[in-house]
Amino acid sequence: MAVKAGFLLAAAAWVCLSAAVAPAFDGVPTAAFDERFSPLFGDGNLVRSSDDRSVRLLLDRRSGSGFISSDYYLHGFFSASIKLPKDYTAGVVVAFYLSNGDVYEKTHDELDFEFLGSRWGGQWRVQTNVYGNGSTSHGREERYLLPFDPTLEAHRYSVLWAPTHIIFYIDDTPIREVIRHPEMGGDFPAKPMAVYATIWDGSAWATDGGKYKVNYKYAPFVSEFSDLAVVGPRAGPVLRVPRRSGDEDLLGLMTADYAVMTPQKRAAMRAFRARQMTYTVCYDAVRYASGPFPECDNSEEERENFSAWGESKTVVMRPRSRGRRRGRKAGAGARGRADVASS
């Protein structure tokens, strides 16, 4: 009962946070799948709705599945409503992300929402990644618990990628802002990227560093993507200039509501991070002994809430199932990128 009560309190807090922020996505056009996307892999495990406005991605013993945008984009706003698989999902990874890894094998850029499954039903974790110019060895990862059960209904996950900053959103609430700092150099994504969505078997690392594998007794694992939105200047994958109307598209992007961080949005972001963030690279003195990244907005008061390896001392994962209560600090053992992604 205590676990359920805690979840209800978190959900109530999320409703209050969302209500405090004016809708950032009013007027953002959504697209039919065929207008902006193509199947990537999975054959029959990618199931399009009859009206072509939503897509189900399945993982079973045979295969995962995924899709990719038909174009590359140099900056933009990218969004999808996602409903995650329910029940036991240890080892399952669902991802919504931008990348150019198929073009720049060793110097790729990437912006990720990675959803990491759990033994405990709806207790998924979300990780955001920012990689530029192949910087995965010193990547900018953060991880969060969700204040709601993402398996009950779809929630909207969005990325704003501008020349000057990046914002990750869950519903209308920003959860992370990365402001481009001169010292970031090529670590800030700056090459055209395509949009991807995938579901796959991450048994080797996704849950407790690979301790808990995908159990195909619970297959198929089904994720649903809808409200697909792609706004931004299209570009060739090896070009750094938009194809057409680039300046006008970029001006519209930079002045849109979702690209502007108001005081209300920033307050809601800080509240979310204080309650839900389980790991941040900004306080990871083990991986980065030379100090935090230049864009990190560090504070001594906030630092006290994190261990030396960037884990929260206060935000803990607890199962939502009935029976004996078991809890652990989320993200234990984050020492490198693989561990950061898997804990």
Automatic annotation (TrEMBL):
It is found in: Secreted, Cell wall; Secreted, Extracellular space, Apoplast. Contains at least one intrachain disulfide bond essential for its enzymatic activity. It comes from the Eukaryota. GO terms for cellular component: apoplast. The keyword Cell membrane does not apply. Its EC number is 2.4.1.207. The keyword Hydrolase applies. Catalyzes xyloglucan endohydrolysis (XEH) and/or endotransglycosylation (XET). Cleaves and religates xyloglucan polymers, an essential constituent of the primary cell wall, and thereby participates in cell wall construction of growing tissues. This is Xyloglucan endotransglucosylase/hydrolase.
